[in-house]
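Let us work through a complete example step by step.
Step 1: write down the sequence.
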Amino acid sequence: MKQGLDHSTASLTVTVTNTMTAHLEDLVHHPVYGTFWVAYHAEVAARMALAPYLEDHEDAVGSELSICHHAMAGVGATVLISAQVVQVERSRVRCTFSIHHVVSGTLLATGTQEQVVLSRDRLAELVSAAVMDGAGPTSE
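Step 2: predict the structure and record it as tokens.
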């Protein structure tokens, strides 16, 4: 990893669409920003914070995600997802994230996301093993 990752930040802004609403098969449907999408956008923001610091031969995979969903945002709401690297320990990079409603400033979600940095060659081996076996070895 390149120098300077320690306090890297990244953010993205998205508008909640009908696709991003909370629905679990035919069991639940609420016309608000779904936790699945909160997780997805947290992963994207955390990766954006890490990506500029990866060497050409490196890649990363998500290893942990924790979310506390505090409030709802409806379809059409604009939300700001912000991530900050708070810990780098060997190959593990931990970010905190927050998601706010842009207009009201309401805190919608907070949490942490961890990624493991590894060589592209090692990742290719792990992916190949997972595809062949249906379940590969751990990333460490």
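Step 3: interpret the result. The helical segments are 35-50, 120-133.
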